[in-house]
Amino acid sequence: MMLQPKTIQKVLIFVVMLSLLFQGISYAAADYPHGKVPIKDIYPTQQSVMDNLTIQKDKLLVGQQPDGNFEDFPHNTNVVANWNFENGTSTPTGWLSQTYAGSPTYAYVTNDSANAQAGKRLIQISSSSAASQGAWKTSLTGILPGQNYYFSTYYKTNNLASTDRGVTARISFLDAANNSVAASVYFDGKPGTQDWIELKGDVEIPALAANLDHVDIELLLWNATGTVSFDAARLMNRKIAANKEGAKETGFENVTIDTTNNYAAPWRLVTSAGSPNVSIDASQAKLGAKSAKITASSAATASWTQDVHLTKKTFNISTWYKTSNIVSSDKGVAIGIRFKDANNGDTAPEVFLNGSTGTKDWTRLAGQFTVPNVTAQDHVEISLYLYNATGTVWFDELQVEYANVLINGSFEASASGTAPDSWTYSAPEGSPKPTKLYEVSGANANSGAYSVGINSTSTTGRAYWYQPYTGTYREGDGRVFKAKYKTSAVFNSDATQTSSGVTLRVNFLKTDGTNAGNSVIVTAPPSTTWQEISTVFSVPTGTVKIEANLGLWYAEGTVWFDDAELVAPRQGGDMTDNTIGGAALLTYWWNQNGKSDADVQKAAQKAIDFYINKRTYTIDNPDTTYLRTLNSGGYYNRFYIDGESDAIGDYPTTAWALNSIGQILKYGAESGQPQLLTAQQKTTLEAIARSLWRWLTRTSIYNPQNADNQAIGTVVGGLTLGKVLNDTALQNEAIAYYNTGVAGTNNPVNDPGNGGAFGGVRNDRIAVNGHMIFDEKEKFDAHYGFYALSFLSDLYLLVNDKTSNFYLDGVEMAKYIDERLSENGWLYFGSRHDESDGDEGNITFYGNNVFSHETGYDLGRLLAVRVNFADSSYTPEVIGHRAHSNIEMHDHFKSWSGSKPSFNNEYSLSKNNVSVYFNKAGANLATPQAISVQGTAFTEGAVAGSRGEGLYYKDTNNAWNFLVNSSSGTNKYVSTTNYQVRKVDKTNSALSNTRNEYWVTNGDTLYNIMAVKFNANVSVKALNHLVGMPYMSSMNRIMNVSNGTAVLDLAQNSGSISGTQLTMDSLKLNGWPNLVMENNTDASNFGFNVLGNYYKTIEKLRENPDEGSKANFTWGNIKNTDRLNVNVIDSASNVSYASGEWVVMVLKYSASGSAEGFTVTPTYTNASTKALSNLIVEDNKMKFSLTWPNVTFTDKASSETISY
After folding, report:
1. Could you report the per-residue pLDDT of 252-294, keeping only the tens digit for each?
2. How many CA atoms lie within 13 A of 503 on its CB side?
3. What domains does the chain contain, in order, with CATH numbers?
């Protein structure tokens, strides 16, 4: 049955469509439902895995911060076309050479002989004259004023000598006539002979450059001799996400409007007054091709509204808007910010930022808001308004990011007129001491009119402007301190000092005023033009106050500062295993690609140092709910860096970190091989890893989330560590911890009482449909089940023993998955995820590969979303958290094996292109849970909260009733040469009936034949067999159903269609006596009846309500869906059946392009009620004859007969 969430149907389609934006290869919807691809097609070879690992490696290198972490990163894609110069003939496409002086020569190297940094091509500039100035240049349009971009390129030099800039990259801001509209930004390199070095830094696009037309990037040789090569030029908008969820689709490029339900995922279209028109305009945009539009001919109020989950801090918000004839005596055009609790009640008054009326070209509307620090605060509602106005407004490029926490960072505010508010000057050293300067004329200001300065007449002087900040801190919180500066032409420093010249300094203070950690100090070279000085730092434990200092240290001359900022970009992901995971991926890539890449080695070492120093914890999480032992002092990893939230995620985060360390030691510290790690790093990681194992098995309670994949992953980490360290005792303990339990641990051999775990990890398995499998919250999960299978493959390969429980348990779980996995690779129904919702970057499916190879089961048909990592939004911290899976996918890779299975048993009917998986839980003992025919998937129907398939009838009181099929008789499974036949006996006291249901397939078509005998006199007004209907196998449209002359749009909230043949997507349905498809018309409960803000696809539905804030999004909240029925009668008056009378309903599924059909020969006892004495269903390949309760089935090709 296709779920029809009326209020969010387009949202579902949008999510599917959005996932397709990341695909590098296009797949037809008819071939791969939901826009997904079999994983064996995503990763057909081991090299295909390495290709993606290489892309991820590159993203990690670009995204790594100066302190080594992968948690703050440049978002969005690279806007430089042909960034690695791989496209072109005689010159690289999109680039041209430009000579400014002398006679430099230019080369476009199109082979790998010059050892390109990214790909096989690079560009060069050479000169024999020191007076030469030349560049490779590209021009970029669509760059947004007032936003921060991240620039990076790589260069290498050969005998390059210069007394000027030598090697530099220049970013220029130009109008349409190529005139400069703001000072260019330079990134200078080093002379000499150097291998690849990165030039990188932030580029602030001038906010006031209204006539900015384009930005030029020039890679230059400047007044130098020698040769410089360039490669891998990147410019990326640093749109810092507010938190893990943040605002989505802020550029409106991939938004589709559902006007029926007022949705444009993830936006809601809200009309408060009047009759405005809301649309996506493909002819207007500030950036890209589209914008959001609201227009009204009479006064109206409407908005594009989105819910965003933000931390309780201060944020900058901005959007671009354009107006045409806006008239209003009210707000007109505005951004509205509302603060909401979990029940959508207000926690604080709404904040408005008002724009202008009239007609204006694109204008930036910006402001600031603070999320209330109240317990009830849950989310922020952001609205882009046309407010009580007429006219038209367009919106584009909404941006929400953390605000500068420094007060008066622009120095424009001054109550005294002689010093800036909120800043203090101090000059502790000097003879004479430096003097303070406060400029108010604008002569020495980067922006505005005011700036601060320091003048010193001696290199003995040290002075600074400073401001304390006492906001809230998270342990390890990443922050950025930056400012603009310029110096006098004469500016000399005392070179004997450790730090001298222009400086930024950050002090970390405890409650008693003592230092909580070492100060962070950075220096910058003198410059007579405005430059930026910045540092990224992490907040040490125990800090209650930060002091931000702008200084002149031991220097003679003058320095001016302006536009100081202290910002706290949210960690892209809270999990503290991100950076060590990234280090593991880099280490593995280094190991597999020659063990000689110095850049990768350096990046890995920096990440490891950051993890050791900033992401390991020995002080208990404030939430000690899940600890057996307090104050153990052992190492562990927090899920939330700040420890402010539920600590239940610390267990898996620690297990993932243990696995990453094991991989680093395995591939970066092999005996007798080149070493990636320093000796100290190796020693420290070994000690931390041993401590993590003890914490997981002794300090923490066992498996606190009741997620078996996490417990198995813990064993993988321990066994890997034991193997790497050649520690037999640890290896044996890890194996025993899995098999039998270990005394003294949180999973001992014997029952500890009080509901504690015991008997080993494998004792967690549960019996499901004849198999012992690992579960997720007491049920199989369609997502995390593959994590469990993959970790089992790890353990099997570590011991390399097919008699081990690791192998045997893995084979049994693989058999279970193969049995329930549909013929087209669709897997539906799970405790936490209702579908395998992963893609090649976020699902662990290397276990499918290993056990496919070992067993011959076709586990590679599992569907996942294909992602082109190079173009996707996959960020370094995401890559880091998932690194283990990607590493093991390559390390374990084996050839895919198997073909589509054939089953005919209690749980599964499967043959070639047809599969039916039956629900064996509770009362629904014979209900098909998932049907797939010719690539089109079906699932259950829902009526008034009941799910399944069965009799759907209207009683004499005009009330509809749904009798979900249940079993009380015998299920029979018989096969012929060409057919598989299943019979299910069913009874129900309501309506007093016995039902015999038959499933018949030859691998190309599927019959579902239901015979119903009444055991007492009954009267009804309508009688149907409610059956499954297509899920969502078309990725770009709402599913439509046709009877050949009319089409029913399933997105609508009403309407029906009928006929003996209906077509939908890749399938044709033939029914007897008739088929009826009808939309759910329950206005109080269209489709998904879900509260809150968790509108997601069906694959995100939960079977288990124990999902915290997502508990509303479970099957229990889904009351009604659209209905596909095989109809027997539909009458305005009562229709009566005598006891013993019986009727039959027939449905045949076949490919939409086939000529398949069937004939029915009924012998009626009462033609008006369709009561029968005999029925024959026949096509050119089979014959089915029923005389209640006896059936004869004939396979015509083989002449085999089955009798019941």
Report:
1. 877 888 776 577 877 888 888 999 999 999 999 987 789 999 9
2. 25
3. 64-71+584-756 (no CATH), 96-237 (2.60.120.260), 263-402 (2.60.120.260), 424-567 (2.60.120.260), 906-1082+1123-1203 (2.70.98)
SS3 call for 677:
coil
Residue 1122 φ then ψ, to 5°: -65, 160
Tell me how crowded residue 70 is: count the other CB atoms within 10 A of its CB. Answer: 34
Alpha-carbon distances, residue 488 vs 308, 530, 673 (angstroms): 46, 11, 53
CA distances from residue 1198 to 445, 802, 806 in whole angstroms, order as listed: 92, 40, 43
The per-residue pLDDT for range 1051-1085, each reduced to its tens digit, is 676 789 999 999 887 789 999 999 998 877 654 43
Non-local CB neighbours of 358 within 8 Å, separated by 6+ positions: 323, 325, 326
| Total residues found in the chain within this entry | 1204
Q: Name residue 442's amino acid.
A: G
- Nearest alpha carbon to residue 769 among 815, 824, 732: 815
Residue 1090: HSE in the Cβ half-sphere, 13 Å Cα cutoff: 27
- Chain centre to alpha carbon of residue 419: 48
Residue among 664, 670, 713 nearest 684 (CA): 664
Give the predicted TM-score (pTM) of the model.
Answer: 0.63
Q: Which helix H or strand E contains 849, and what residues bound it?
A: helix 846-855
Residue-wise DSSP of 358-417: EEEEEEEEEEEEE----TT--EEEEEEEEEEEEEEEEEEEEEEEEPP-STTTT----SSS
What is the SS3 assignment for 208? coil
pLDDT digits (tens, 9 = 90+) for 286-322: 877 899 999 999 999 999 998 887 777 778 888 999 9
Q: Residue 1156 — φ and ψ, nearest 5°? A: -60, 140
> Could you please report the per-residue DSSP string of 1076-1122?
EEE----TTS-SB---TT----GGG-BSSS--GGGTTSBGGGB----
d(CA 1097, CA 3): 10
What are the two backbone dihedrals, phi and then psi, of residue 813, each rounded to the nearest 5 degrees? -70, -35
Structure tokens at 30: 């008819």
373 token code pair: 């620090």
d(CA 995, CA 1184): 17
3-class DSSP state for residue 650? helix
Cβ contact 962:969 at 8 Å: no
Token pair of 515, please?
């230092």
Neighbours of 44 (CB within 10 A): 14
Q: What angle do CA 526, 528, 531 make, to 5 degrees?
A: 70
C-alpha atoms less than 13 angstroms from C-alpha of 351 in its C-beta half-sphere: 20
Cβ neighbours around 1191 below 10 Å, total: 19
Q: In this predicted structure, what is the pLDDT of residue 242?
A: 32
Q: What is the dihedral of CA 250, 252, 254, 256, to 10 degrees?
A: 120
Q: How far is CA 491 from the centre of its chain?
A: 49
Under 8 Å between Cβ of 524 and 501: yes
CA 598 – CA 981 distance, rounded (Å) = 63
41 and 580 Cβ atoms separated by less than 8 Å: no
Q: What is the DSSP letter of 578?
A: H
205 within 8 A of 148, measured Cβ to Cβ? yes
Q: How far apart are CA 598 and CA 596, in angstroms?
A: 6
What Å distances lie between residue 792 and 387, 435, 777, 814, 921, CA to CA? Answer: 58, 69, 18, 10, 26
The string of pLDDT tens digits covering residues 991-1050 is 888 889 999 999 999 999 999 999 999 999 999 999 866 554 333 334 678 899 999 877
Closest CA to 222 of 152, 159, 160: 160
| Distances, alpha carbon 561 to alpha carbons 205, 373, 507, 534, 1096, in Å | 19, 33, 19, 12, 48
**CA-to-CA distance for 1108 and 418, rounded, in angstroms?**
55
The residue assigned the tokens 């641990």 is 745
688 phi/psi in degrees, rounded to 5: -65, -45
